[in-house]
Here is the input.
Amino acid sequence: MAKLIKSIRGMHDVLPDDSFRWQAFETAIRQLMASYGYKEIRMPLVESTDLFCRSIGEVTDIVEKEMYTFEDRNGDKLTLRPEGTASCVRAGIQHGLLHNQIQRLWYSGPMFRHERPQKGRYRQFHQFGAEVYGIATPDVDAELILIGARLWKQLGLKNVRLELNTLGSSQARIDYKKVLVDYLEQHRDQLDDDSLRRLDSNPLRVLDSKNPAMKEMLDNAPALIDHLDEESSRQFDKLKASLDATGVKYTINPRLVRGLDYYCKTVFEWVTDELGAQGTICAGGRYDGLVEQLGGKTTPAIGFALGMERILSLLESQQESEQPQTVDIYLVLLGEASEVRGLRLAEEIREQLPSVKMIAHCGGGSVKSQMKKADKSGAYIALILAEDELSNDQVTVKYLREKKEQVTVGFDELTKFITNIV
Ligand code: ATP
Ligand code: MG
Here is the structure.
């Protein structure tokens, strides 16, 4: 027998019995974003490697060790996108969507990172993200947080909390870096290899470390929030006031720095304690410098991205959900003449009643085997078309889920009959 080929480690199929959960989630997202006036943008899955190096930052987990990078047949260096923001900015600049305009955008789709696969951490995973361009004031920071809060509410998701921080202006971060490096130098003996490397190149990244051995030392490090510039402080206060006014609870986490280099000012994460180490379900922040950094004109920007697998897994553990009815009608066809007429009948029904879900039997077989398939399909009724019915232009209706007498219905009455029962 031929050797089986399996899916790539960390990349998963969504099987037919699970796809309804994805569809419900995607529908909720689409409706929610429309209700806030956001438009969808769809970007390619593959971009120039440069795009991610220049935006996410050379000294980050993603660029250093997680990207799927390869050369195509022309020798161009390409990368499967590890996240959506860089592509969104690239598209916005390329198509002239950003300068002097306000854009409220969302996207969703697969992302790729070569990480160690575990629950809630995959090599192909899916993000839904929102990005707003052209608004520098913290009212829109609040809007993005409120979108998250509303999504959890609409999904019925429980026990998620909001952590909030501000990274200040780029000058504030430069000043703070000196203070932080001084502190880290004093605790050099406790730094792991990654952190030692980053101490010179990107000291803020050290704060993002997940190494438990460094936690206490990092908890005692000086906090950026104590080195803020006035403008960032004022904006942060206004954001907090907006959240207080709309009843969104948050905790300030001065250690929250995010794993990507392009963030400034507001950063936030929605976290849960119910997914172990993969507790962050949604993360975002302001990135006012990125558009310019990628060659566009200075444009304020803010966004978030959420991990769809993590949210679906949380939903599954918190609530029971039933497969929706996928088939209403199963059309049983006995004999060659019925098979031909039945196909036409099915098309006539679909033409008139496009929302009715119907399987027309294919592949022949006895009445017994076809009825078995009808039952297994979950259909509410079976319509049977055999020689007798065919010569009278009618079908026999059998109820599959109720103890009800079978009836015969003429072809000309069929759509009316179906409308009344499904
Ligand atoms: P983490 O700290 O868990 O590695 P991150 O900071 O790398 O997350 P972001 O780049 O901010 O994550 O991505 C936003 C969200 O996408 C995360 O909060 C998470 O929910 C989800 N996510 C990130 N990486 C993965 C992955 N490998 N598998 C599944 N979901 C992921
Ligand atoms: Mg990560």
